[in-house]
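This part of the workshop introduces the protein records we will be handling. A record pairs a protein's sequence with a compact description of its fold. Backbone structure tokens are a discrete shorthand for how the chain folds in space. The question running through the whole workshop is how a given chain folds. The record below serves as our worked example for the rest of this section.
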Amino acid sequence: MSETSPKLRAELEGIPTYKPGKPAAVDGPVAYKLSSNENPYPPLPGVMESVTAAAASFNRYPDMACTGLMNELAERFGVPVSHLATGTGSVGVAQQLIQATAGPGDEVMYAWRSFEAYPIITRISGATAVQVPLTPGDVHDLDAMADAITDRTRLIFVCNPNNPTGTVVRRAELERFLDRVPGDVLVVLDEAYREFIRDLEVPDGVQLYRDRPNVCVLRTFSKAYGLAGLRVGFAIAHEPVAAALRKTAVPFGVSQLAQDAAVASLRAEDELLGRVGSLVSERTRVVDTLRAQGWTVPETQANFVWLRLGERTVDFAAVCDQAGVVVRPFAGEGVRITIGETEGNDIFLKVAEGFRKEL
């Protein structure tokens, strides 16, 4: 038997592994999972029924074109079907975007810290990652990003609101940035948390895309819509980009269960908005309480809050674990805490109060 191994791409060496939020313990003391930005509510009305009906035929392949969902999205956002593409969550679509635009020798730019999948999917493609530090206020430094554009830049992610800090870029600064980006560079507005935004100065990326052919908008059903386990996201982009996304999609990647659940979720939007409103109110309570405790908390427009703890990050996460809540630590930087059930949020706030007194 040969002792040699199959040759694998050199680009895979050193690629960081995506770290999902730690699950809540099944039989231990931990009861609340505030580590994955999941929606704590059960499926929206009509969703479970649609999934149950679709499950009866999962011996068959799903509709590869996602026809029903594409038509529903086209009507909901007022865009042509030809400007839409679906994928396995918005992160799946993001990977398709890089496959379609960048390879060895090309550059993909994003803020840092931002969504931790960006460096992974960039390196998988063989492209070079260009990470531009956030401002001291944990916001995208769009001027620095514009200055970092070179003739090798192919794609720029703008995560708005930013994961994990929850901060946003507003209309004037984003439009000024877009005006500086060359027309042959694709700007991807990653709006996974769009539904939680209450700042009226934060633009809807779909409105910006309409007259900018180099702007693509990413959305997902994983967060506000509560379909994280079904993996369905989509992009809105002008036809050349959307067509490229459909070419790079994994055939039959979005299951029929996911497609039908997404359609049912779109049709239950009134209930969705009520749930999102409740989470936003709870977000306000959590942020106000943390600030009253003496914490510096960036203004968040997402369904999570960010505490910059530096070297105390892992210690804080461990104390939360012991108290009964799981949070998402980024070692040496900070902790992201999802807004979940009120009981879980209260446990987290109690931990934060005690930890703050020890600092």
Notes: Residues 269-292 form the longest helix (24 residues). The mean pLDDT is 94.
